[in-house]
């Protein structure tokens, strides 16, 4: 993940482009030539977090295609000239399928796509689109709504917390859905947020976790941290916690509430299929439960059975499209109307969200 503050602030531009999945019109690869796939990420893969989830998304492709693909994973590449140079080299080396795993790679990766029309580029979290260039993002909010229901059910104080990276729409929507899910179980629930302004800062994350605990928060959402620091600190204090992207259960065997996991393999596999068939078409791709990209895993057995029954019912409705966490009436934190009764926010409106719902007690940073 990028540590650039503008990582999602420009996502409002995506609304005009439309949010869809990727496919239709370029020459297919020669049948006897293995497809070179390169994944470039800005941090070490490690055993948890964003980079780990991206790398895991390629494993099923290797299993499905065998010697028809050749995969290269290049980790810990800083955004900027180094990333541009390395991505260009991967293409020069014969890789015709590039996954650029950070927002800050966008400009360099887009230029590669424009100069190399036979190369397909997938770009994490951006907004630019070209015939052979697709940005992709996850509907984390669908999972955080469900974990909000669970959090409210196990909370004794009625106060929940979130250690969050940056105040960008992706993370704002995750917090808002978390709050709305909790309020569906306990209407008076409150959520406090500490913004650490980093994707990867164990010391800040632990400090923020302790600050939330001191306010009485007894369930804490690790919102886009690439380290298990929040989860570990909660386990030590006996406080429930959950996170995004990949399971951190081994760091909190007792108090881990669950994980909003991302499985990028369906999207990656479909994109590789389209590339090989010569039918790939770049589009802004926003994927969730229905796409089998977002799934809540590692549910804690302490969650009451009746709550789990309700959670599973809502999960089914999210998957079939009959329920959205962002259907009104929804009130903003400042008391004004956020979503009118009977109205459901579109994907474009969700990725541009810059306000908190009522119940989130921490003002957004200016």
Automatic annotation (TrEMBL):
Keyword Phosphoprotein: no
Domain ABC transporter substrate-binding protein PnrA-like, residue spans: 37-319
Annotated signal sequence range: 1-30
Xref: CDD domains: PBP1_BMP-like
Alphabetical list of PROSITE patterns matching this protein: TAT
Record lineage: Bacteria, Pseudomonadati, Pseudomonadota, Alphaproteobacteria, Hyphomicrobiales
SUPFAM superfamilies the UniProt entry points to: Periplasmic binding protein-like I
Domain of life assignment: Bacteria
InterPro entries to which the protein is assigned, alphabetical: ABC-Purine-Binding, Peripla_BP_I, PnrA-like, TAT_signal
Keywords: Signal
Organism: Rhizobium bangladeshense
Protein name: BMP family ABC transporter substrate-binding protein
């Amino acid at each position: 993940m990028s540590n650039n503050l503008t990582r999602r602030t420009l996502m409002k531009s995506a609304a005009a482009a439309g949010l869809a999945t990727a496919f239709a019109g370029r020459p297919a690869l020669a049948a006897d030539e293995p497809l070179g796939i390169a994944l470039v990420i800005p941090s070490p893969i490690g055993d948890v977090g964003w980079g780990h989830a991206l790398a895991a998304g390629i494993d099923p492709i290797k299993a499905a295609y065998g010697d028809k693909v050749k995969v290269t994973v290049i980790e810990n590449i800083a955004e900027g000239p180094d990333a541009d140079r390395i991505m260009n080299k991967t293409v020069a080396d014969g890789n015709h399928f590039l996954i650029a795993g950070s927002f800050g790679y966008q400009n360099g990766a887009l230029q590669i796509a424009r100069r190399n029309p036979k190369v397909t580029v997938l770009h994490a979290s951006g907004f630019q689109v070209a015939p052979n260039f697709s940005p992709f993002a996850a509907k984390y909010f669908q999972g955080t709504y469900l974990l909000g229901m669970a959090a409210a059910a196990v909370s004794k104080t009625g106060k929940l917390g979130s250690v969050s990276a940056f105040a960008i729409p992706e993370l704002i929507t995750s917090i808002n859905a978390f709050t709305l899910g909790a309020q569906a179980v306990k209407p008076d629930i409150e959520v406090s947020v500490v913004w650490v302004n980093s994707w990867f800062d164990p010391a800040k994350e632990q400090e923020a976790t302790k600050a939330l605990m001191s306010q009485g928060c007894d369930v804490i959402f690790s919102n886009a941290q690439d380290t298990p620091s929040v989860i570990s600190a909660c386990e030590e204090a006996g406080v429930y916690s959950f996170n995004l992207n990949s399971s951190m259960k081994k760091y909190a065997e007792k108090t881990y509430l669950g994980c909003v996991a991302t499985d990028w393999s369906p999207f990656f596999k479909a994109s590789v299929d389209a590339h090989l068939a010569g039918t790939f078409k770049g589009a802004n791709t926003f994927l969730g439960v229905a796409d089998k990209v977002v799934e809540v895993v590692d549910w804690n057995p302490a969650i009451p059975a009746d709550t789990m029954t309700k959670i599973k019912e809502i999960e089914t409705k999210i998957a079939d499209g009959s329920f959205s966490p962002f259907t009104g009436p929804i009130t903003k934190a400042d008391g004004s109307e956020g979503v009118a009764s009977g109205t459901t926010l579109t994907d474009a409106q969700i990725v541009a969200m810059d306000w908190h719902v009522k119940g989130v007690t921490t003002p957004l940073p200016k």
